[in-house]
Design goal:
Structural class: alpha+beta
Radius of gyration: 17 Å
Distance between the termini: 38 Å
Shape: globular
CATH architecture of the largest domain: 3-Layer(aba) Sandwich
Strand content: 25-35%
Number of strands: 11
CATH topology of the largest domain: Aminopeptidase
CATH class of the largest domain: Alpha Beta
Number of helices: 5
Largest sheet: 11 strands, mixed
Number of domains: 2
Order of helices and strands: HEEEHEEEHEEEHEHE
Length: about 220
Amino acid sequence: MKYNELDNPVWNALNEVHGEFSLDYGALKFYKQQYGPFGGFLPGSDTIGGIDLYAAKSNNFFVVGERPEYSKQLFLNNQLICEQMVLEKPAELERKETIVPLITDRHKLELFDLINLVYPGYYKRNTADLGRYFGIYSHNKLVAVTGERMKLNDYTEISAVVTQPEYSGKGFAKQLISHVAELIFDENKLPFLHVAETNHVAIRLYESLGFSKRQKMNFWHLMKK
């Protein structure tokens, strides 16, 4: 199969659009720890030294793609297998809610709190600087969000698809995903995302919007002993 940027998304994002956010260890690159706990490397490369250097800054992180080599000071906490999904054309969806750009300091604090309530550890204080984030409010409370994370030359990742549990089932996630995807298409890029292969509810949601599965993607969760 012909090589595609999405075959190695973190490495390519940090080697392309997101270079300013990169910690470069040669064949291995990580997002600076304040932006996200993710790294990637060129397949077949020696990763031990670079991972040790990054582990001195962050003792809890993911390497995305092929299984990395790592030293005895670390252990593999988990292998998260995700479906990588791509949207080829905009979803035609009526938006009934007001979608708010999350750009102020207050917005960003609310965004941080909501995402870490539902998915603790993935979203950092400065993750919002990687892309555009949007939300839906109910009674002045932020109840649903979606935004952009990895940015490549031809693709942008939709991420942080989060809804307050008591507001699920109202179609908020669909409206936000459709909105963010439309902005990505306007830049002549394709939206993609990653979702745990066991999260069948989310996968059905994405498929209902037109996303299709492209490949499995491994997130290797490493921690210091």
